[in-house]
Amino acid sequence: MSVFKEFREFALKGNVVDLAVGVIIGAAFNGIVQSLVNDVVMPPIGWITGGLDFSDLAVTLPRSPLAPPDAELVTINYGKFITTLISFLIVAWVIFLLVKMINRMKRKEEAKPADAPEKPEDIKLLGEIRDLLKERK
Q1: Domains in the chain: ranges and CATH
Q2: CB 42 within 8 A of CB 83
Q3: pLDDT score of 9 more than 70
């Protein structure tokens, strides 16, 4: 089997296509979450904290003795990390709710009683014979 044929079989399997769709939707969802965090969640948090903008929070490290005098100062941008952490928590919460909803729908589907399979013709005939014999007595 050629490598290209194996790859085509792999790429066209249902799971790979589902995964690709999930990745694309996830990338699009990332923009929505970023906007939600930056434009909806963080402004009230900044308002509560007195106008503090988390994305600007950083610790500036002292200039290294080995660095040239015109080198930029190094900063640890922990505010951007806090914003990213909040984004992650929102995404995790939304995914949790989606999985919970899907599991609830699956449980309802599983709880439905399955239709009894139709009896084979010979079993039906035997049942009719039994019923006729009971009526004769």
Answers
A1: 3-113 (1.10.1200.120)
A2: yes
A3: yes
